[in-house]
User: Which sequence fits this backbone?
């Protein structure tokens, strides 16, 4: 289909025309720009709040998902309009692409807000290194965006005057048919013209190159940021950031710390991580730093209890409470995942095995069934839910009541090479360890099963 402009008549001079801006599309785009501004401000606020308080994924994912849906709301109408527009005759022609129907500022401003929103959204959804987690991503986006922005000097178009379709030279005042004064192409009718010329601007390339260079510096220097960037912060501010920002923490502890500062940092870390879940993924460096004080006397027994007792409370029996004679009875030990500060803080788990106590005819039942061994060091912190749950199976032959007991010992040992981590079950608690532990707990659990005829 030939391109037809309503103001061009063969045999008459080409007039200066009003640029043919798609007013409905421009209205929708302005609406999206205003909405994106509000969402960007809210995203920045969320980024700061999440960076300070470091909530878990249970908060980040629902809040982030809801926020993303809210941001996409005004785009629905834009998408619907585009879908209808694509069905109009001539839309696929080179004279009428969708993004050429708007002033260039609208496309640039909307893209800038959308990219900025994406950067901040990635930042507050990240569970990594606090405020610094956005720098590498920002550098990557600035590098790619700078290259794309430079290319606008070649491809960017917007509504304008009637021009030659090849060189975009204005044809106002010339009578068609005529030759283009710039490139010499013969213009026979409107199909050899366009009213969406390329944008002739000299600021696309320098701005794009500057953004790409800055993005490259952020990417290359991302690893050096903690060394130089945090070095300008006051020690008080660095201490506050260190609770949630691993890089700020590394910068802080790389400097000499007094015993008072060390004790205050240990107490602050323990206080922040009290709870069922324990140490989070973002506290890895802090936990490894705390490892070095294991068994040195710097950490008190009360602080050991606050770190490690949460794992004791979560271990429990899982299994049926009723069974019938001749049916297989299976019970197992289970626990939710617990986060400990570092590798050396993870307690060893020892089991004496399962013991079946007969009540109402079961006095001579099998005793100490199962196994007597050490558990995996990481059970139940990581592997308990998958394959390492200690279990016991038994098939009763008489009705009555079964009581299944198990004794578990959790222990943390000093940082001594070749430490002997064995337990003697035949002696008292005080003497049961081959190497004296720094901390230990003895747990006795029972599980009752009613056996029906």
Assistant:
């Amino acid at each position: 289909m030939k391109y037809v402009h309503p103001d061009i008549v063969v045999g008459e001079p080409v007039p200066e025309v009003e640029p043919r801006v798609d007013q409905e599309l421009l209205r929708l785009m302005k609406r999206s720009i205003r909405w994106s501004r509000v969402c960007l401000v809210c995203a920045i606020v969320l980024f700061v709040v999440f960076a300070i308080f470091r909530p878990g994924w249970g908060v980040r994912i629902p809040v982030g998902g809801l926020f993303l849906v809210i941001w996409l709301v005004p785009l629905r109408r834009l998408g619907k309009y585009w879908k209808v527009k694509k069905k109009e005759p001539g839309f696929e022609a080179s004279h009428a692409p969708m993004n050429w129907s708007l002033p260039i500022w609208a496309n640039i401003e909307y893209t800038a807000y959308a990219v900025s929103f994406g950067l901040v959204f990635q930042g507050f959804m990240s569970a990594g290194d606090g405020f610094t987690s956005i720098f590498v991503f920002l550098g990557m986006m600035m590098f790619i965006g700078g290259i794309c922005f430079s290319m606008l000097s070649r491809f960017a178009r917007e509504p304008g005057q009637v021009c030659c379709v090849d060189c975009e030279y204005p044809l106002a005042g010339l009578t068609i048919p005529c030759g283009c004064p710039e490139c010499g192409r013969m213009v026979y009718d409107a199909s050899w013209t366009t009213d969406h010329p390329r944008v002739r601007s000299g600021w696309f390339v320098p701005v794009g190159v500057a953004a790409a260079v800055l993005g490259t510096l952020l990417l290359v220097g991302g690893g050096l940021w903690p060394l130089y960037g945090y070095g300008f912060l006051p020690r008080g501010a660095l201490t506050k950031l260190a609770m949630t920002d691993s890089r700020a923490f590394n910068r802080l502890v790389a400097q000499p710390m007094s015993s008072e500062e060390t004790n205050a940092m240990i107490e602050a870390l323990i206080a922040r991580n009290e709870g069922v879940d324990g140490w989070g993924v973002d506290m890895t460096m802090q936990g490894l730093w705390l490892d070095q004080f294991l068994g040195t006397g710097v950490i008190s027994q009360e602080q050991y209890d606050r770190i490690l007792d949460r794992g004791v409370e979560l271990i429990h029996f899982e299994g049926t409470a009723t069974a019938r004679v001749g049916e297989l009875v299976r019970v197992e030990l289970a626990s939710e995942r617990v986060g400990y500060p570092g590798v050396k803080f993870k307690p060893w788990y020892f089991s004496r095995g399962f013991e079946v106590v007969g009540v109402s005819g079961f006095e001579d039942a099998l005793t100490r069934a199962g196994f007597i061994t050490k558990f995996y060091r990481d059970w139940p912190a990581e592997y308990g839910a998958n394959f390492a749950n200690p279990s016991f199976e038994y098939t009763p032959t008489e009705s009555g009541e079964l009581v299944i007991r198990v004794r578990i010992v959790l222990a943390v040992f000093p940082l001594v090479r070749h430490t002997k981590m064995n337990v003697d079950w035949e002696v008292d608690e005080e003497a049961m360890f081959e190497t004296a532990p720094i901390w230990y707990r003895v747990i006795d659990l029972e599980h009752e099963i009613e056996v029906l005829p």
About this structure: The chain has three domains: 23-220, 237-298, 312-452.
